C-alpha cells in the first residue's frame, strides 16, 4: 500500500518515474493524449517537483516501483526532522526542547494531509531548515562564506522541491535581514 491518493499522487508518481527521461530530453512533461490537440502539461500542473524526484531516484532504481515510494517518504521525513533539530540547536535550543519541537512540526496535521493527498514534496523541510540555519550561522559570523554557499544551495534546493515554500522561506530570511538593518 502506498501513502497517498488523488490526482496529486498520480502526478507525483509520474514525475518521479519520468524524471530521468525528461531531464535527458527523451521525454517531455506535456501529455498529448490529454486535451488533444493542445496537450496537458502534467509537469507544470504538479509543480514539477524536480528536487523530490531527484531525491527519490536512487531509491526508485534500487527498490523499484512501488517499493521505493514509502521508503522515500520515510527517508525524507527523517532528514527533515534531523535538519529541524540541527536548526533549533543552532538557535541555542536545548536538546530535549529541540527534539520535542521538531516532533511537533513533523506530526502536525498539515504533514498528514499532504502525505494523504500524495504531495510529499510539501513535507520536505530539510532544505528550508538548513537554509535558515545558514542565516543564523552568518548572523553569528561563523564561516560566513561557507554558510552563504550552503544557504544559497539549500534555498535553491528548497525551491526545486516545492517552489512556493522555498520562496516563502527566502522571504522570511529577507525580513530577518531587514530587521538587522533597523
Question: Would you give an account of this structure?
Answer:
By secondary structure, the protein is mostly helical. The relative contact order is 0.13. β1 (30-31) and β2 form a beta hairpin. It has helices at 6-23, 42-45, 50-63, 67-90, 95-106, 109-116, 126-139, 144-161, 163-181; strands at 30-31, 40-41. The model has no long low-confidence stretch (mean pLDDT 85). Helices cover 72% and strands 2% of the residues. α4 packs parallel to α7 and α7 (126-139) runs antiparallel to α8.
Summarize the structure.
With 182 residues, the chain is an all-alpha fold.
What shape does the CA trace take?
globular
Q: What count of helical segments does DSSP give? A: 9
Strand order in the largest sheet? 1-2
Tell me the helix content. over 70%
What's the mean pLDDT score? 85
* Proportion of residues in β-strands: under 5%
Q: What is the makeup of the main sheet? A: 2 strands, antiparallel
- Uncertain runs with pLDDT below 50, 5 residues or more? none
Order of helices and strands: HEEHHHHHHHH
How far is it from the N-terminal to the C-terminal residue, by CA? 53 Å
What is the total tally of β strands? 2
Question: How large is the radius of gyration?
Answer: 18 Å
What is the structural class?
mainly alpha
Using brief descriptors, characterize the structure shown:
182 residues, mainly alpha, 72% helix
Write the layout of secondary structure elements.
Layout (H helix, E strand, L loop, with lengths): L5 H18 L6 E2 L8 E2 H4 L4 H14 L3 H24 L4 H12 L2 H8 L9 H14 L4 H18 L1 H19 L1
